[in-house]
């Protein structure tokens, strides 16, 4: 069976990619958001399509055009993205969580536009944790004993004593996914830029793979790696 109808290393496979940044509503006109452009996830979706896969792109506020030839599902908030991903993951052979999911959302969403207070005081926003979509997808995969490769992304800055890749190793273990693509971020690095560097870590151990270049080149490298990973694990 060829899901994508295409030729290539992912021919016949279904791939779910999430991309962009979620927006968590405060009221009908305001939200808490992040600086993800969606470029990297869109590039992965296009590379998977070019590798012959049938691609579902769960998109949260892209600043770039979605690629042609993929099924687009809009998901604005983390909760909407969670629902879209759980649904599409049920029939996916590969899941790539490239979206920047807000860790918190406002505890309450005002039904009408919030007005300034009369006395000049500023509001204090109460936040609650969002669900961890990646962990949930891994749990669902494990419970259903689905043969599915789950790939996470992590943007890390590193700290005194801990490198971004060390944080990535810890995150890979915590999330339970198969691959984690670690981006080193800082003021001028990665967000909205066209060139990038990714370090790919595998739960199976082994060497770190460094992918460098434009986001398209890096995406093609990641898709090649995914294809090799699938080939390495017997059905
Ligand atoms: N992710 C997710 N759901 C969330 C948060 C993150 O699915 N609520 C996914 C992202 O899409 C990404 C991976 O988890 O693939 C890592 O995201 P990251 O923000 O680096 O991880 P967190 O667990 O939120 O850790 P941190 O405290 O460093 O933000
Ligand atoms: Ca986070």
From TrEMBL:
GO terms, molecular function: FMN binding; metal ion binding; phosphopantothenate--cysteine ligase activity; phosphopantothenoylcysteine decarboxylase activity
Q: Which domain of life is it from?
A: Bacteria
GO process terms (BP): coenzyme A biosynthetic process; pantothenate catabolic process
Q: Which gene encodes it?
A: coaBC
Species per Swiss-Prot/TrEMBL record: Kocuria flava
Q: Kindly state which keywords UniProt assigns to this record, in alphabetical order.
A: Decarboxylase, Flavoprotein, FMN, Ligase, Lyase, Magnesium, Metal-binding, Multifunctional enzyme
> How does the cofactor bind to this protein, according to its record?
Binds 1 FMN per subunit.
Q: Which cofactor does it need?
A: Mg(2+); FMN
Keyword Nucleotide-binding on entry = no
* Designated name of the protein: Coenzyme A biosynthesis bifunctional protein CoaBC
GO CC annotations, alphabetized: phosphopantothenoylcysteine decarboxylase complex
| Segments for region (Phosphopantothenate--cysteine ligase) | 15-235
């Amino acid at each position: 069976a060829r899901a994508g109808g295409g030729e290539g290393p992912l021919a016949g496979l279904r791939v779910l990619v999430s991309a962009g940044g979620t927006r968590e509503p405060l009221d009908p006109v305001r939200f808490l958001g992040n600086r993800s452009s969606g470029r990297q996830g869109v590039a992965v979706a296009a590379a998977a399509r070019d590798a012959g896969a049938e691609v579902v792109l769960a998109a949260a506020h892209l600043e770039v055009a979605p690629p042609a030839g993929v099924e687009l599902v809009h998901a604005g908030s983390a909760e909407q993205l969670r629902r879209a991903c759980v649904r599409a993951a049920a029939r996916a052979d590969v899941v790539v969580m490239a979206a920047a999911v807000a860790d918190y959302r406002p505890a309450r969403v005002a039904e009408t536009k919030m007005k300034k207070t009369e006395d000049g005081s500023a509001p204090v926003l109460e936040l609650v944790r969002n669900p961890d979509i990646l962990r949930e997808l891994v749990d669902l995969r494990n419970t259903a004993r689905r043969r599915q490769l789950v790939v996470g992304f992590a943007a890390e800055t590193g700290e005194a004593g801990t490198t971004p890749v060390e944080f990535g190793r810890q995150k890979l273990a915590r999330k339970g996914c198969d691959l984690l693509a670690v981006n080193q971020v800082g003021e001028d690095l990665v967000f909205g830029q066209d060139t990038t560097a990714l370090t790919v870590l595998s739960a199976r151990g082994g060497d770190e793979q460094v992918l460098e270049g434009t986001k398209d080149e890096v995406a093609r490298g990641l898709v090649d790696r995914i294809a090799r990973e699938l080939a390495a694990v017997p059905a």
